[in-house]
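Predicting holo structure, iron/sulfur cluster bound.
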Amino acid sequence: MNILILDVYPKTTYRISKDQNGAYGTANNYGDGFVAQILKRIVKKSIDFPQLFVVQTCGELMNLGHEVDYSTELDLNKDYDLYILPSSIVCHETELEYIKLLKKNNKKIIVIGPFATSNFQPYLNAGAHVIKGEPEMFFHKFDKTVNDLNDLPAIIENFTIFPLDELNFPGWEVIFKKYTPQMKFIGRGAAITINSSRGCPYSCQYYCVYPLQQGRKLRLKSPERVVEEMIHFKKNLNVSNFLFRDPVFTLDKNHTEAICKEIIKSKYKFKICVEVHLKNIDENLAKIMKESGINLMYVGIESGDEEVRDDANRTSESNFNQVTKVKFLEKLGIRVKAMYILGLPKDTSRTFKQTVKYAKKIKSSYAQFSVFTPYPGTPIYNEYKDKINVKYFENFTQWELVFDHPNFKTREVTDLLNYAYKEYYLNPKWIIKFILDRIKDIYEGINNRLFRFSR
Ligand code: SF4
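Done. Tokens:
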């Protein structure tokens, strides 16, 4: 079959990632202050990659002999047997418009992804079929012909799960024909996403969408298979930069250590970014992770106020341990992006300003301040569904207050975001650290070149 993966986005001045936030997506509209505006531009130019389940779906379909194209634009002059549309909350209304247009032209459309799994009705109403569950697990055996498409049910319930090692390699070749994914904060050149596990059992699933996408049970890919995949894309697409999209890369420390050792054993020099939970990090593991090429870590701090965190069921380290661990990682040469949330249920203007002060104390290489958002499908949504004050799901950017908060108004949230980004990135201590880090990068770059030259 000829299949088009039609991945549509509204036109914006800020970056939209459908992959982040458990593949519900985020839109990096940080605020309207001076620093926030600059950051928006930098991030839009520096990071771009599709949802990993989309690339995995391409891999499964190609393996069965289907012809697969990927596009962010629709050209009705080209005809395909099947259109697969990845869903998200951040592009929801745009996706519906495209489905209606395709339907008007008598096309067969299947919508995939965690957002459609939890919120399938609007997609069905627009005229699409919906796969519930992990689409790659469904397409793994999709040896259908065009005639079979007439028998597809409106909702395809597919909650079959098999070991991650049995999946094919993701079909990055299809994406690279369209554009080169990048993540400039890890390194220059192409960057692709990968995972070594799925699922997260932590209690913050109360408000987090990752467990909705992948379940609460941890499923692991073998370390050998992870490294085989990395080497495959190094050899075939010359990729050295990898962004692990595991909800928490360090959930099973033995597994994490085994992957890092396998990478070290391979002798390949990869640059790697992972998301971790500080609870699972100790000095020994951090050193092995650094040696394997991990040079950037995302850590969720959420709030500097322990009461605010506890109230949101956040699984956390103590503030003392958070500061100590981030400083240790940075000293080791692993840059940390610490992520904070404004507007958690018990948050106030006072506790948020304390959080900004706390962020300055942590002084990680990067800091991100986003806005608490109750997502449909998560347990916390039931408490908020009658308080939602925006009309469109595309407003659920993670940088906009979408519900009536007892302690904040919409404009106040934007002002606090502007305040946070300005306080953080114009802090003289952070600026000095940033300059010293860049000098260190240049020095290491020269050293590496000299080393290669002298061999
Ligand atoms: S640790 Fe919490 S916030 Fe992070 S992925 Fe797991 S449930 Fe979500």
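Residues 428-454 form the longest helix (27 residues).
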